[in-house]
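User: quick one, fold this
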Amino acid sequence: MASPLSRRTLLQAAAVAAASPAFSYPASARPASAVRTAVPAAWSVVPFALDEVALRPGVFADKRQLMLDHARGYDENRLLQVFRANAGLDTGGAVAPGGWEGLDGEANGNLRGHYTGHFLTMLAQAYASTGEEVFGAKIRTVVEALDEVREALRHEPSALSVAGVLDGRAVENERGSYRYVELPADVLGGASAVTLSAWVKPTHQDTWARVFDFGNDTTRYLYLVARNASGVPRFAITTGGAGAEQGLNGTTALPLDQWSHLAVTVADGTGTLYVNGTAVARNAAMSLTPAALGTLAHHWLGRSHYAADPVFAGAFGGFDVWSRALGADEIAELQNVRASGDLVSYAFEETSGSGFADTSGRGLDAVLRRTWGGPSHPGFLAAYPETQFILLESMTGSDYTKVWAPYYTAHKILRGLLDAHTATGDERALDLASGMGDWMYSRLSVLPAATLQRMWGIFSSGEFGGIVEAVCDLHELTGKAEHLALARLFDLDSLIDACAANTDTLDGLHANQHIPVFTGLVRLYDATGEERYLTAARNFWGMVVPHRMYGIGGTSTTEFWKARDVIAGTISATTAESCCAYNMLKLSRALFFHEQDPAYLDYYERALYNQVLGSKQDRADAEKPLVTYFIGLTPGHVRDYTPKQGTTCCEGTGMESATKYQDSVYCAAADGSALYVNLYSPSTLTWAEKGVTVSQTTGYPREQGSTLTVGGSGRPVSFELRLRVPAWATAGFRVTVNGRAVKGTPVPGSYFAVSRTWRPGDSVRVSVPFRLRVEKALDDPSVQALFYGPVNLVGRNAATEYLELGLYRNAGLSGDLLPSLTPVAGTPLHFTLDGTEFAPFYEGTEDPAHAYFRRSEPTVVFGGLDSQVANPVRSGGDSLLDEVWAGAPFHGKRALVARVRSVVDAWVTDGLLGEADADRIVATAREASYAR
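Assistant:
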């Protein structure tokens, strides 16, 4: 087990907040059993736990409140339905969420269970942040249910008894349970005449789900289905496969959730199908009898010999076989009186166990089975059979309709359980997580290395998400050597080695399949000290930022990466998958714990304040989290906050993001000597180790700065306050302490240090002046994004072509482009230009938006005066005005005019501008008036 934690470690331990993240309860609500884990020795800074940083009113608190309302209102039993069904447990009438969590969703619901993990993490983060018992209660409900599910899966299936017909009982198969009843071999007794009778209550309109199927394979069999392709009952018998079936088809569909009686008689070349005592089909050319089939290998209720057919969903209220064809009156009488077949008779009166008694007197008792047998290890936990994990081991190509990222789903469940344990101290959650680790190790540790490499290289099917990170966290808690060994079994050597060598091989890879791999590698470095893991992660980050990054911080187009430095050329309606931003933030944060490169936090601010905030719609909904999947960056794109069929990966990470906005606002040096202020966000930090609080009062990003106030126990405390200077803050960044300016020269893209002994009441004012600026697409400088400070401004316009905008017309002497825009009165961060309103990307609206525009500066204009001279452009794409304004800021008008003279003279010399036009440009610059 892990070594005991020192007081220092306990106070620092926001450990899991980095890689887990770490959770705990607010001081007023935290139970003694809440868990803190040790901080990795490799970290030079450590984060604070969610309960140590309280959000104050502002844009983040507003967005979080919307998600908290969703978390409170959504019934967790709906998520548990698929787990309980898989284990054959009573689902309590809960309706599965559908979408990716439903059997009718994309790829047959092969990812179901993943969303429960996301939801559990959201609950843990919400509980850690707020201490509200409603979230703790939901966590306990989920953990208790999953514990029951695992226990059920460890044993043979047990009958789920429900009310039946004729005052009896029945056995129910929940949809998704993959259970069937196996009958002994002699149920048909070699009879040449037969009656088969069944009471059924179908609960789903699946076609081809078998009431019974007796046969060897897909050649010799007889079956009865509740619904064929036409939606009506069908009986068939064959010795030559589907093409040679002799059949009987009903005329109307059986009702759902109601009892129906089905009977088939076969004798003397005639077959008859009865529904509720009435003959609905007769075939006088049915020459085959059960005796003609010979000895059959399988006799199943609810299962088909065709592997693609669904298992019957519903209840069996009785099944009987007679060795003769009952008459019509006798069939009709079965609607009112229970009778026993002379070959077999099952009343399904059992209320537990896996056996069903045969009351015919022949002693042919039946057994409840799973189609997939059962788990290979007692730690197995999933919302579907182990089949996907087994099939993956022999796959050579992707097919998500058969295998869809089973280890990705396992990761989400494992992560949720770890977070639940950390938040509540519930040992059951840790036991479940540890069991999952044991089970995965038992599967993967026996596979050849080549098999593992092949598996992890398969698109989609082999995706495993952030499982390495989660397993490393599990190892920290359990101390089991097998768990650390398990984490290393997911090494995809070709990718790791390429990135460690700084060889960019990302073109064509699925983005979100690979980003979390590298966060896991950082954690493996923490656990093993193996440098290639950290080097690979660091180099990988640099291959994405900025080379495959959109202005809002997102990456990927149609979920994949394209060639390096192609930005404008990849803009589509399916850019910037939201999961990618979530995982890039996690990676940036993990790298920052090792190397305090401000670029990681510059990226963090960009993606958090734009894509992550903007991916959440600004309204609450109990049914859906209202989070985007893709954020299209094409002109006039309207965000879709109810993507695909629902319960997607991006909605899951969106729930997580919206309940941990504060996780990276502050960090502390590992030795306690410094406090990093990474983000300007209204919040209050409780730094227990130092006995101080630090409160940020700000409207940022609506306010251009923040005020930090020190509070605490009253004793002086010495530490260095390190304030991030954003890379875009190129002028005017200023710090005062108690009203006095702090000496030093702030450098954009660095930290500005204030070292002193702090006392309660000390006030630090950070001024961060915003400027309007553009960021050019790397592959097409004319395609640009507009930023005001950290905020991407989007044009709200229904046009589906790029807006063409000129911004130099009223540029100020500072180089700020803002004077070219007109502020919207009473609406911060809203502006107009050429009839289009520009607003922050983070506002979660359904307005058609332009995150990129095409820059158009056709003539040379200064201070609103048009020289009527065309703005020439060099072969590289830079225009004359670009070169002029590249010299900003200017101390005064004279300096600007001198710059204009110098630039036009160079263009004349290069033969790109005539002398008369040059003089006209200079005269216009001299005549114009400028904002500062």
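User: anything notable?
Assistant: The chain is about 30% helix and 20% strand.
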